[in-house]
Amino acid sequence: MDDLSAVREEVRAVPGPSQETVARGRARLHAHIARERAPRRSPRLTTVSMGLAGAAAAAALVLSSAAPPSLPAPVRPTAQQILLAAATSVAKQPNDGAWWGNNLVRGIRVREPGNRYTLQVTASEETWIPVGKQDSHWIVRRYLGARPATPQDEAAWQADGSPSVWPYQNGAPGTLLGADPDRLEAAPGQAESHESADVNWRLMFASKPLTKMDELPASPEKLRALLEPAPGDVPGLLENLASLIVYVPVPSEVRAAAYQLMASLPGVTAQGRATDQLGRSGQAVVYRQPDFTRPDRAIQTRLIVDSATGAPLAVETLTPDSGELIRFTAVKQSTWTDQKPDLPNPHPLKEGN
After folding, report:
1. Matching InterPro entries, A to Z (predicted)?
2. Which of 191, 202, 192, 193 shows the shortest CA–CA distance to 135?
3. For residues 314 and 276, is the Cβ–Cβ distance under 8 A?
């Protein structure tokens, strides 16, 4: 049976009106006809005819009325279903090439110097890694500018005279790659590239440089043994898993194992469909954890994944109560390629020097 036939069968299966409803409708019709048959003056014939027609229509409506079948409410997938589906999809993605590139857009929200509205400051960051050749990589960064964060902030910004520069006497309450903390500007900056060595921040991945990420295990159990900072440290494990999923050039089966491990952890819940800061829609999961940049407060982390490919779209930091955005990283594109990237304004520079 095809879909259309199934729909027809469902419609036929809808029960008709009860015998009691039919009897009441007929009684109303007969009573109305009896009243209309009483002697009347001829000028009322048109009205009589209209009355009979209206009564017949009313009776037909009563006799044929039946409640339409109710449609089932959409079921929101669980966090486990979202993450396991992402694991299945991402495991099918290719991961071969001489270079791995990750194009990110990072953002942070800060109050303007007069504390009258909030600015969203963004910067792009491309990472290009030659696979298996040397323990260094290239980073291309560009400041993308500042703008009012929400429509309400835009109205307050316009009331402030629509400035394009915001000077801070004591520095902006938050820094971003390429941004001048003493002077935020609306205009974007120039792109610059740097050669970088692998340094301490990669120690969370067992001291392996980015060019050796293909050596990570592809099973959830072995990943947990490698990435859990201490036994039972679920917040730290979730932080490492999100970093691996979003930032690191691992084979597809390793990223799939990270999704599977995250699906097994407590405290991860589904938020349903969400839109990231680049306007793309995906399925989101959220979990609470300490803010590693500010240990005095808790935060909520939201991971948004592409429903079709399982690729990460964004990881966002939200306030735990109202869910307001604090900062975010959106994955604009992540790719494996044999083509050498075009690096603008190359400036060889070892980080830490």
Report:
1. CU044_5270-like
2. 202
3. yes
